[in-house]
Structures are given as structure tokens and as C-alpha cells.
Write a structure and sequence with these properties.
- Helices cover 11% and strands 37% of the residues.
- The protein contains eight helices and 33 strands.
- Strands 21, 22, 24, 26, 27, 28, 30 and 33 form an eight-stranded mixed sheet that branches.
- The longest helix is centred in the first third of the chain and has 11 residues.
Length: 551
């Protein structure tokens, strides 16, 4: 009891005790071969790749200074951090800022008072993240009860790595049949190096290891298993769950998990952590999709690796957010004030990759970032008319409970959904028909799990809920980069009337917009009212329209 009393006192004094952790990324180009296969001009920080993980303690203020030595704008996003009362620090390029101009620098201020767990930081402007600018972020916990559940902390980062800058491949993606893209498949990096050279993780008998697994991927999924050991899941995307035993993790781009693994008492055998790299939007091809790798788990240098009979995926108990229960015992958010159906749309083309979208229009940036429109248009900010159609803007009222139904009834492949500014309750999933949804699974227990990134399987829907208690503009998108770049995104304009009273954009950010030639007030075109003169017409994609019910 004394330990927990001290913990409560410590948390209440976080603002006094918090450290200011200063990290500088001097961002620039470097020619590098990270996978030992191809050398190309990537994007790194401080002349290095991989970029070292960032470690802070809950309550710290992370000050991340990005120095832009690229020849294009730059922005940096802390993936999973809520940026409460500071939407302008979210780092979504041309959504919450215009970007950092070349030869300029900016410091993002990231509060961790209300969050702990496993995250990552990456560029969020164009293709800069997939071309290298990404690193894990660990916010150490203060809760002694949680710290007592494990003895050691191990970080495992999983990345996809292409055969050249994605920017240089964009035109090829538009004009080349998918089968001809196979030689350009990405390879796998584990903890920043070629997965075939994975460094061992050393286990001591009887010790409990918290394995933090971060999918810093932009194209492929990862499956992670350690045969012969049980994984106890305790965290998904920075949100803590009641411990639950699973056999493995099936992770889409952007997801994170923490699992506790208790080492065996014997030194007789070493083991292998199996990592499978796969996707369903590229044909299965031997040597490319899927790829299989192993990370040695070493108990003793001279012990043999124990082998196990292979089992089929359907026999594996995978971590499942609908089967997990929230540790902080938050009940299901209800009643629902606003129900939103978002349909995945597909525009098929004879050559190259199809265009996928969340909504009737393919998302596209506009001259004025929507955050600045929401802050400068007064009462009109509550009207969709000031936001260009290609923003797929959805206006949320303050503190409303919002249920979002994401339906993948048209696309023949998996997608992801990542929410900026929120971790959503995962409520239900099932079969998505053209005009209906057939429930298959619903959350178990009393306290639905929350997270910020989820898989949306082909032919399926997922229903999630949030409380609109974080005024700001929040980008919602597929975390497969080629889909995000082609327009698979929408925006939450959350409580614009409240944000006008509470948010003050740093003057430096407004000056960056001026340098880059972007207006900082008015509607999406920089005008007032609904005049969108000067903006290209949106790319419409046929199919079932999105719907919003409630007020």
C-alpha cells in the first residue's frame, strides 16, 4: 500500500519533477546500404541510420529539434502521442503545419504527462519516413505495480526497407504492372540491420522480459512468435491491457505491442524468435513474399537451438484487441452522439497500383492546412463548406461520443487505420457487405481495449469509438505509405469552436508557411466563405457514399 501511495504522490508532482529531454535530429541525405543489397540516397539524422531510439520517463517533456538539410519541407510526427492542447505539434505535413523549410529548424514539444509505453517518431511529409527518418520512442513507466511485472526491458524494432527512394518510384507505381514491381520488394531490418544478421537476445533462466515490439513499417505486416514460450500481452499502442496469454503477434504497419516472456529455468536449449514479413497486396512470391527470419534467443553460447513442429497460422492464438481488456477499466463509451460510416474506395487502373481512399474523394493537401482554417474562420469553422472536399473533413462536437465504422467491402486487400490525436475503443468487427454489416466478433469483458492503429481486413468492417475531448485537427489515414500518398485519408475537425479559444500556433510555424508560399488563414484556398478558387478539383471515386448520423 505504501508503494502505491508514494506512486500517487509522485504522479501528482510530475510537473515539478519532469525533465526536459532535448534531442536534435540534423536531417539530411546519406548514401547507405542498410540491407547489404542496394546502396541509395536515404534520409537519416546526424549522418546516421538507423536513428537511435529515444528514451524518456513519463512526465518528461521531449524537445525534439529537427534541422532540415533536405531540399524540400520536413515535418516530424510522434506516432501515438495525443498532443493534447498542442495539435500544432502533431507534425502532419499540410494538416497541422506547412512544414519546416529547407535550411530551417524547429523544436517540437512533446508532453508525456498522461502517456507511457511504446511509440515511435517519424517524418510525416511526403516519403521522408519510408526513406529512413524513423526511430522508436519509449516512455518509461513510473507505476511500481507495472514495473514489478518484469525484470528486463528489450526493444525489438521491425522495418521494411526498399531498394531505392520511394519518391523516385512514385511514377513507376503509377505506370508499372504489379508483377514487374517484385524485384523492388522491400527487405527486412530488425533493430536497424539486415534481418539475416539479427543480433541475439540473451535470456537468463527464470527472468521476466518485457519485449517491446515496434512495427516501424510502411508497407508490410509482421508476425512474431517465440515457440516454446508464452507471451503475456500487457500493452498495445501505448495502452495497457490486463495480461493475456497468446502465442504470437500479427502486426500491421505502425502497431506496437509489449509482451512479457518468462525465460525457462534450463540452459539446455537456445530458441529462435520467428519473424514473418508478408503482405496480401503483392502476389505470394518465393523469396519475396512472405519472408522468414529468426532472432536467436540465447540461453547458453554452446546450447543447440530447439526445434518445434511447424503449425498452421489458424492454429496460433494471435493477440486480438477484441479479446483484450483495458487495464484502467474504462467502460464502453456511450451513448453514441455521432455515428460515422467510412467506406474504403478503390479506383482501379490498367497499369500500376490502384488508388485507395477513405471516402468519396482521394485525399489531397490544399494551400491552407486545415488546422489553420479551423482556427481562423470563426463560426464558419463548424461548417464543412470551408474545407475543400479532398480533405474528407468530418466535424466533431466537443466531448461527443463518436462511433466510427470503417468498411472495407470494396478493396480486395487489407488496409490499416491510424488515428492521430486519439486511441480508440475497439468495439466490433465483422463482414462488410455493400450496404450492411454483419457482426462476427465483439469485445469481450466489460472494458474494451483501446489502441491507435488497427488492421482492416478485406471484406471486413471494424467499429471503434472515441470521445471528442481533444480539440484540434487530426489526420486519420492508412499507414501503408503508398496508399496514404495516393489519398487514403480523412480529417477530424474536432471542436473548432473550442480550439479557437485554446490553441495558439507558434509564430515560427506561421512564418514557415509564408516562406513556403502558403496562406495561414481562411478556407482551404485561403479565401473566406466557400470560395475554393485556385484549388484543383478533387478526384472522385465511385462507390457507396460515407454517411454521418447524429449531431
Amino acid at each position: 500500500m505504501l508503494a502505491y501511495t508514494l506512486f500517487n504522490l509522485l504522479v501528482s508532482g510530475l510537473q515539478v519533477l519532469a525533465a526536459r529531454v532535448q534531442v536534435t535530429w540534423d536531417v539530411g541525405y546519406l548514401n547507405i546500404s542498410r540491407d547489404g543489397i542496394s546502396t541509395w540516397q536515404a534520409i537519416g539524422a546526424n549522418g546516421k541510420l538507423p536513428i537511435p531510439p529515444i528514451y524518456v520517463t513519463q512526465g518528461d517533456v521531449l524537445e525534439l529539434t529537427a534541422i532540415n538539410n533536405l531540399d524540400k519541407p520536413l515535418s516530424v510526427h510522434a506516432h501515438g502521442l495525443f498532443q493534447r492542447n498542442s495539435s500544432y505539434y502533431d507534425g502532419a505535413g499540410m494538416v497541422t503545419e506547412c512544414g519546416i523549410p529547407p535550411k530551417s529548424q524547429f523544436t517540437y514539444v512533446i508532453e508525456t504527462r498522461d502517456q507511457s509505453g511504446t511509440y515511435w517518431v517519424h517524418a510525416h511529409y511526403g516519403t521522408e519516413a519510408i526513406d529512413g527518418l524513423r526511430a522508436a520512442l519509449v516512455i518509461r513507466d513510473l507505476d511500481p505495480k507495472l514495473l514489478d511485472e518484469y525484470d528486463e526491458d528489450v526493444l525489438l524494432t521491425l522495418e521494411d526497407w526498399g531498394q531505392g527512394p520511394l519518391e523516385s518510384m512514385v511514377d513507376m507505381l503509377k505506370t508499372t504492372p504489379l508483377v514487374n514491381l517484385i524485384p523492388n520488394h522491400p527487405t527486412v531490418l530488425i533493430n536497424g540491420i539486415n534481418a539475416n544478421l539479427s543480433q541475439p537476445i540473451r535470456f537468463t533462466p527464470g527472468r521476466r522480459y518485457r519485449l517491446r515490439v515496434v512495427s516501424m513499417s510502411f508497407t508490410y505486416w509482421f508476425k512474431v512468435r517465440l515457440p516454446g514460450h508464452t507471451m503475456q500481452v500487457i500493452e498495445a499502442d501505448g495502452i495497457y491491457s490486463q495480461p493475456s496469454a497468446v502465442d504470437g503477434l500479427d502486426m500491421c504497419p505502425g502497431q506496437r505491442y509489449s509482451v512479457i516472456i518468462t525465460a525457462h529455468d534450463s540452459l539446455k536449449f537456445n530458441h529462435a524468435l520467428n519473424v514473418t514479413f508478408y503482405s496480401d497486396f503483392i502476389p505470394q512470391t518465393p523469396g519475396f513474399n512472405p519472408l522468414y527470419h529468426q532472432v536467436p534467443i540465447v540461453y547458453h553460447d554452446n546450447a543447440p537451438i530447439k526445434t518445434f513442429t511447424a503449425i498452421e497460422d489458424h492454429e496460433v492464438k494471435w493477440a486480438d484487441e477484441l479479446a483484450m481488456e483495458l487495464r484502467d477499466k474504462q467502460m464502453l463509451l456511450e451513448p453514441v452522439d455521432q455515428h460515422i460510416v467510412v467506406n474504403v474506395k478503390v479506383l482501379n487502373r490498367e497499369m500500376g497500383m490502384s488508388i485507395h481512399a477513405y471516402g468519396h474523394y482521394a485525399y489531397a493537401p490544399v494551400p491552407v492546412p486545415p488546422l489553420y482554417t479551423a482556427l481562423t474562420t470563426g463560426d464558419m469553422a463548424l461548417s464543412p463548406s470551408v474545407y475543400a472536399p479532398q480533405l474528407n473533413a468530418i466535424i466533431l462536437k466537443h466531448n461527443h461520443v463518436v462511433e466510427l465504422e470503417l468498411r472495407n467491402s470494396f478493396a480486395p486487400i487489407m488496409h490499416t487505420y491510424h488515428s492521430h490525436g486519439h486511441a480508440f475503443q475497439v468495439v466490433e468487427s465483422g463482414l462488410a457487405k455493400i450496404n450492411s454489416s454483419i457482426p462476427v466478433k465483439r469485445f469481450k469483458g466489460r472494458y474494451p481495449m483501446r489502441r491507435d492503429t488497427i488492421t482492416l481486413a478485406a471484406g471486413q468492417y471494424v467499429r471503434v469509438r472515441i470521445k471528442a475531448d481533444n480539440p484540434g485537427v487530426w489526420y486519420q489515414h492508412c499507414h501503408q505509405e503508398q496508399h496514404n500518398l495516393s489519398g487514403m485519408a480523412f480529417t477530424f475537425i474536432e471542436a473548432p469552436d473550442v480550439m479557437q479559444q485554446t490553441l495558439r500556433v507558434p509564430q515560427e510555424m506561421l512564418e514557415f508557411c509564408r516562406i513556403l508560399g502558403h496562406p495561414t488563414q481562411g478556407n482551404s484556398a485561403g479565401h473566406f466563405g466557400s470560395d475554393m478558387t485556385g484549388i484543383d478539383p478533387p478526384l472522385a471515386i465511385n462507390g457507396t457514399a460515407n454517411s454521418i448520423t447524429g449531431t
